[in-house]
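User: Please write out a complete single-protein record containing the residue sequence and its fold in token form, without commentary.

AI:
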Amino acid sequence: MLRYVLVLYIFLSYCYDHMLIGKETGSRPNIILIMADDQGYGDLSCHGNPVIRTPNIDQFAKQSSTFERFYVCPVCSPTRSSLMTGRWNYRTGIIDTYLGRSMMFPDETTIAEILKANGYRTGIFGKWHLGDNYPLRSIDQGFDESLVLKGGGIGQPSDPPGGNGYFDPVLVHNGKLEAQIGYCSNIYTDAAISFITKQSDKPFFVYLPFNCPHEPLQVPREDYELYRSLDLSEKTFPMIGNPPSQKWDTEKIAKLYGMVSNIDDNVGKLLKKLDETKLTQNTIVIFLSDNGPAFPRWNAGLRSLKTTVYEGGIRAPFYIRYPGVIAANKKIPGIAAHIDLLPTLLSSCNIPFPKSLKIDGIDLWPILTGKQKEVSERNLFFQWHRGDTPQEGFAYTVVSSRYKLLQSGHPTNPTKKKAKPPANPVELYDLSKDPYEKNNIASEYPDIVHKMKNSYHEWFSEMKYARNFKPPEIILGNDKELTSILTRQDWRGPMAGWRTFDEGYWQVKIEKERNFRIELYFTPQNVDRELTVRFLNSEKKEKIPANVKMVAIESMKLPMGNGKFEATISGSLKSNDPKKGSTTGRSGVSWVQLEVIK
């Protein structure tokens, strides 16, 4: 009898081992990648926040593995491009978050494109922020199904005329503007669930990048009510690490916490649907955020905020779950980053890595599955620049498993300020002993400073060599986008901005001469003005009567070529400064729609 029990035990052990091997090397898992927007490391209960309520993400974290330190960029577009490509954002064309600096080159290969080519259904629901026009859209970069907001967020210049909000937003569904009903985060989640549960014999890749809790702080009443009466002052939170550098706005924190709790509810709803449809066991789920918090609040003692290269700006929550393959409730020694997800996920799916693809990330799958103990020693590089061309040696950091070198500063736009901003002194921290970056040891370890600084300059030179920081182009009149919309999100130039009186141009390409009907929207004034539309040698002028906010050019022929598409208004302008009264000058339009006339 004992012999039969022993044989049965060996047989079952063999089957179980091979079941796991099959799960790792045979069948291909589904993938869900969830990302919050501006959710800080401290905006989770499982990270020690005593007030915020995130029970679903907390439970998910217990079922997942994480890394001691997981890094992203100081702002969102760069993180998103690295996440999609496995490459440093400067290689992809992404420099900043707006004014034409957050459009990714179409020749970049995304994880969605690779997975789609290998039999996956691919869907994105939320914030793309890597280009609104062909050939830069999510549907041009590998996604079968796409329900996304325009530009970098709702409530920004990429909104349709009349504005947009987090409730009942106008979103872009597979390239077409469509009005939605409900709260934005709920809409994205419901669309993702619909995509997941669609009958298909193909595995799926779902990218669910929320635009919450990014400002404006528009939150469902029931979520806001969870926090509005609570004490959110500094004394309520553990005073570890760095105390807040600025006074907290408790009303803003209450609204933001409500937005995070709404995300938590949606994560819970999504995970429950996986359980109900028996997809949990064969689905990799990842949760992370794109950068640090945008305004002061408790952040687990980490130093500073979004836009900086201190830990508070670039360290993000990160959890990955794959039942039976990745260990639950495990913290893995070492550092990891956004650039690592593409090679890691391809490895998890047993998809051969494209030989022609040059990436910067590493495959973490052997570490996540216990076949390798530690992450290989390496340097990670992060920099943020507000301008067309990044400045070498300014607002950057080099991060190793132990040390962190940085030069802080707020990047300025060199096209608006002639003087180059002074570089702050170099700082060095031993994060193994000083995770809160309180003790600058640069003067004590000049050799480490020199070595890490040299590695940064080598990295920057390589980034510059990749594309010389030139901008991508929007293609107008292509059959894949016969109606194009241009907004202040993507215009460029020394006077470009988001204000009423700013002026810019769009860098575009027209592949063949075509006729367009053009609608142009702008801020109305109580005087007559003149509009000029220009591209290469084609130009049209239109009178703008007083108090009019839109002009339509019924037909304008635009020649084939590459160049600046400009739409400027001249005449008497009412200044934002009441002391200055009316002035004479120029301004740009806020929204342009170009429709091909067949």
